[in-house]
Amino acid sequence: MERWLKGVKRVATSSNDAECSKTVRTENAATTDPNDATTTSSSTVSKTKKRKYNESYISFGFIDYNGLPLCMLCSKLLPNSSMAPAKLRRHLETVHPEYKDKNK
């Protein structure tokens, strides 16, 4: 029964429950210790992928503007997450379908 209650905060109704909830709170405090190196180091690591501009993106109609893709046809500045070739191609085919078969 205690493994189901691990991590659950309970309200004490009797003296036995008060002792039990006190131990549960101490276990919770021990698992979420702010000074623990494993919790702080994993939370500060950035998991976003920064893409870099590639010269082949000019075939989709995009140039590099301070590390971000800028559409030459509509002057729209896209976020770094949109720098994947599939997303650039999708922009070209949906927003500018008349230019999708043209070369550079």
TrEMBL record:
The keyword Transmembrane helix does not apply. Residues 51-103 form the BED-type domain. One of its GO terms (molecular function) is zinc ion binding. The keyword Transcription does not apply. Transmembrane segments: none annotated. Keywords: Metal-binding, Zinc, Zinc-finger. Residues 26-46 have a biased composition (Low complexity). Residues 16-48 are annotated as: Disordered. This is Zinc finger BED domain-containing protein 5. It comes from Eumeta variegata (Bagworm moth). The lineage of its organism: Eukaryota, Metazoa, Ecdysozoa, Arthropoda, Hexapoda. The gene is ZBED5.
